[in-house]
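It is time I had a proper look at our fold encoding. Can you supply me with one protein entry, sequence and fold together? It will help me judge whether the discrete encoding reads sensibly. Leave the record below and I will have a look:
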Amino acid sequence: MRRLWLIFAQAVTASVAVLFVLNTLKPEWLHDATPDAVISIFETPRAPAPSTAPGSYADAAERSMPAVVHIFTSKSSRAQRHPLMNDPLFRHFFGDGNNESQRSAGLGSGVIVSPEGYILTNNHVIEAADEIEVSLNDGRKYAARVIGRDPETDLAVLRIQTDTVLPAITFATGEPLRVGDVVLAIGNPFGVGQTVTMGIISALGRSQLGINTFENYIQTDAAINPGNSGGALVDGSGSLVGINTAIYSRSGGSLGIGFAIPVSIARDVLEQIIASGEVVRGWVGVEIRELTPELANTFGLRNTAGALIAGVLRGSPAERGGIRPGDILLDVDGRSVQDPKGMLEMVAALPPGKTASFRVRRSGEEIELKVAVGRRPTPQAVR
């Protein structure tokens, strides 16, 4: 028994000695490599950041900026003659002087509306220009030619020739604009380079501003400055909703009241100019006035809906159709006339040559007249 106990004691001592050596020299042999002991970290690529952070319109700007161009124009004009040159004695001693022409430059913006190189801009940007140069967002420059102009909406269509496919903007469709919608104005203010400003739709259907014949402006507080004219007004997704045209300002800079031509009007003008080189509108040759409450009461009307015929041009379609000064125009081809602006737009939308029905109120009675619509005369270019 004593011998067995001695053997057991020696075996335990040897085992403890072996464990001590292993724990000192190879401790990993004594530990079980279980998940609790070894943590494996599986790394995956960092999830991409959202394309647009909350409150950011970077995607809309990135989508529309390549389609907005800078337009540089130049025209020649006679140098102003010094008053002393009108004196024959002065000219006798000093000659007639230098009567050479000088060139003036202008700048604005435009929007590429098709990959074929058609560009929408304002008429006042390119009016009377001898040379037009278009600079793309990537720095490429091209000479442009005028396809057609429409001074009555202040729109013009240019075209540049290139072998590459151009980045055309997307036209907004679907849901109509609402006051409060966010919009971005893109252009080249003061020639500093392409600039994006943000604002909201402040009002819709602005008219009677005295800017153009046909007015139905989008009003926005997005900063629009000289050089922005002809640039893009886009919505939160980067689609075109208007062409920036004018500002109300006492200083020449933005005061938060800018105006843009709605894309519906711009598209109609664009399609007509590309198809025929001009915009054709109906015309009857009348002078119209707004019906004020006082005038409505004088004519025995219940409300101010309609338009007062203040004058009729001699030999015009209106005169041949029997319309007289003092008539109250109530509807055109079954569409009610609410005001002079509405009447002007209705008649302009009629194709020349069409015989339209005009319902008027005369001496307390309603009369229906047939008028052969004429073609609206082209306004004289401003010199």
